[in-house]
Amino acid sequence: MTDLTLALDAMGGDHGPRITVPAAVQALRIYPHLKLILVGDENQITPLLSQVETNITSRIDIRHAPEEVEMGDKPAFALRCRKQSSMRYALDLVKEHQADACVSAGNTGALMAMAKVVLKTLPGIDRPALVSCLPTINHQPVYLLDLGANVSCDAETLFQFAVMGSVLCEAVTKKQHPSVALLNVGSEEIKGNGQVQQTAQLLTHTPQINYQGFIEGNEIYCGNVDVIVCDGFVGNITLKTSEGIARLLLHQLKQGLTQGFFVRLLAKMLAPSIQSVLRQMNPDHYNGASLIGLRGIVVKSHGNADETAFLQAICLAVTEATRRLPEMIEQRLESILLDINS
Amino acid sequence: MTDLTLALDAMGGDHGPRITVPAAVQALRIYPHLKLILVGDENQITPLLSQVETNITSRIDIRHAPEEVEMGDKPAFALRCRKQSSMRYALDLVKEHQADACVSAGNTGALMAMAKVVLKTLPGIDRPALVSCLPTINHQPVYLLDLGANVSCDAETLFQFAVMGSVLCEAVTKKQHPSVALLNVGSEEIKGNGQVQQTAQLLTHTPQINYQGFIEGNEIYCGNVDVIVCDGFVGNITLKTSEGIARLLLHQLKQGLTQGFFVRLLAKMLAPSIQSVLRQMNPDHYNGASLIGLRGIVVKSHGNADETAFLQAICLAVTEATRRLPEMIEQRLESILLDINS
After folding, report:
1. For residue A120, what is the DSSP state?
2. Domains of chain B from N-terminus onward
3. Do you find a cis peptide bond into A231, omega within 30 degrees of 0?
4. CB-CB neighbors (< 8 A) of A192 in chain B
5. Best residue in B111, B240, B245, B257 to probe A by mutation, most A CBs within 10 Å?
6. Which residue, among A150, A233, A286, would best test binding to B if mutated, counting the most B CBs under 10 Å from its CB?
7. Residue numbers of chain A with a pLDDT score lower than 70
8. What is this model's ipTM?
9. Cβ–Cβ of A137/B247 closer than 8 Å?
10. Which residue among A189, A283, B66, B145 is least enclosed by CB atoms within 10 Å?
11. Which residues contact A293 (CB under 8 A, 6 or more apart)?
């Protein structure tokens, strides 16, 4: 791996430096060529590094940021009034090419708005999208976007998400012409609201995209398509509902498995495999989600991410930076959009 | 139980009479005072009853309908051109008080549109909503609406759903002032799209509704609220995603439990409890969903419902008819809407 530098919003998320700093240290142990810029309140960050060996701290650069973006800040407010925040500072470092990527567990709306203003979107893209990879029954991971960066989207925006998702999947999985579907209330052409109806029209007339039509919620985890597109409102609720139902199922299984030594033993033996499935149910929480469509790499970690989860987000940023994802997406986008507009 | 008469759309659903007629016969065996009107193609229905004992067939009345609503029919088309369909005929029977309720497994959009025109909505209600009961971790069932009858809703419509859901829950569970929440991408006040934001405003200023604010997808199955409101696009995808994730979890558990005699044995023991949880994941499929806000009882069964599922839908219709649900809802609605408008 060539030398990489990531900027971490050390203050982001529900736990701030208590989580982000130890996760950063772990990441530096994993990647010997990695450098990290920890952006935030140096008075909180520095003490957390006092016990860390110098061959690790020598690859950490602390940049003081006097402000924080609060979880309750409206995007417009954060944009206007949090110019000295750790989140904004971390994004600036990517823009100024001092960092190859940025990771934050902070306010999604604010991160999206700031990233858009600071890094700018790729040519032909109006709004970035939050995307993550979900597990499926046939082990073909599926990319779902948008996961909450855009709570309301018109057809043109959903169309751009479809193009970006397709390009991302092709760039990462090397799969040619990945299949793309729109999440809808039914698979029949007449189903759905105005946005999905119009988006379907746009995609049907775009041979560069391998559009498969509508799919319903129960098909998300079947693995029959590579990319699933929906607005951020639906995507966010879909992902979180998956987490909720997995917990319910786990809970009811546990309840059903508490009578009798033999069955309790079974429950114990099953716990790890059930837990590992449960862990996959919320990729945003455990793998981080990427904000794509920008001229830079931004990885969003879940707000209440623990150390392991935030480390996962850092690892995702390392992978995307190593693959120079934005450049890859931009190149594919250019050719597709060129064809579409010609 | 006093004598009840239900009208069944015998042609509705993916399987038509092959499923609906045997389910009807089962229902008549369960309820000795029940009468059923089977509406549809008598040439398909009659042969399916040839082997049935007369004390059952004596309580079956076949009404011939020369048409069917197709699953692909647009609501407006079905309304205009399927006036002689089994679905329309069954709804007419409820309107003419020849039947106490109607059950159909047909096209949801068409059923919703026809029911609205034929039966009319209750005073103060613009659009009926599809509602069902979901299981939760603390065993407090939660009412989720709308499940797909209205793919796009303005704030006023969502507000009416909240009132109807609250009244339905109070009427059925006898719980005073049931708690109502709006499904959203975050619990903070600033989160969400225009519709949920405006609906929250309306509910905050309605003391008659025990409004609890926003909840996220992962909280649906926690059982912390009695009623959850969302538009039909989100509700439908949420419900179907729950089914999908449950299947994925079951699949992955099975995969994790195939090595070794002992573990396979334990896995077999687990299967029933997993299956029973799985069954609950799609109440629309297994229990039927109610179309509420109408001047009559309409129960929607899943399109590909099997005999047991369609029987469940008939049982739900029997319960609602026995409790005279529309009258109960109308009375509570009147008082609430009176207070709101005064």
Report:
1. -
2. 4-122+293-324 (3.40.718.10), 129-283 (3.40.718.10)
3. no
4. 151, 233
5. B245
6. A233
7. 1-2, 253-287, 341-342
8. 0.83
9. yes
10. B66
11. A121, A122, A125, A127, A128, A129, A160, A164, A329
